[in-house]
Amino acid sequence: MNPDDQRRLLGQFVRSHRERVAPDLPVRRRRTPGLRREELAARAGIGVTWCAWIEQGRDVSVSPGTLARLAAALALTPAERAYLFELAGRRDPDAPRSAPISQAPKAITALVSALSCPAYGLDRLWNACCWNGAAEHLFAGWLGEGQQRNLLRYTFTAPSARDLLPDWEDRARRLLAEFRADYARMLNDTSLGDLVEGLKGESDLFAHEWDAQSVMAREGGSRTFVHPEDGPLTYAQHTFSPAERPDCKVVALFPWT
Fold this sequence. Notes:
By secondary structure, the chain is α+β, with helices and mostly antiparallel strands. It is 48% helix and 12% strand.
């Protein structure tokens, strides 16, 4: 979406929600539904002209603080507030801090448990948040008892990953490029910086590839493994995200046919 369309959508969103808000004092007759611009501006502590420019989709820079006051003045729900900040291209200063490892959403847990093939869930930082027995058997060095759960750290630093992945270096590069596609949505997450800086110190390949700035969409396709017990295995990888938690993923490895 180009910036002009995004600003236009932001203006339409603010105006639509302004017209839904009941005035502070009841009046018998008024031409404007909901709040007038000057009433919204007073509630949000911003200038009337500034409010008009936002609604008109003008090229103005709206600070996170201004957006937060607008969200409060419009009595937006959490989902509406997140949409407002997304349209404005700003980070919400009051967004809750994320836990280091997210709990798996019920939709992901149910799907992973129902599959007989290797399947696992990833949280926003690509920590394994759930997995089934087939996945634990395949990724014993990652999902086994007592292992750390981050897929990037496992792939780049665990010796067992190099044995399991016959094309380890190419797979590691691609994995990081896919992770970077999620990176821009997590810039306000302090756990992200800790993960990246830690891995840059632990893996020369990670540090080099992170600085290379490669970005790739996460795609399915053939994935080959050399399992210590089962030998060479080939799967078709598919990745899904639940509608209610698009920051999480389900990865399923179906037998290659």
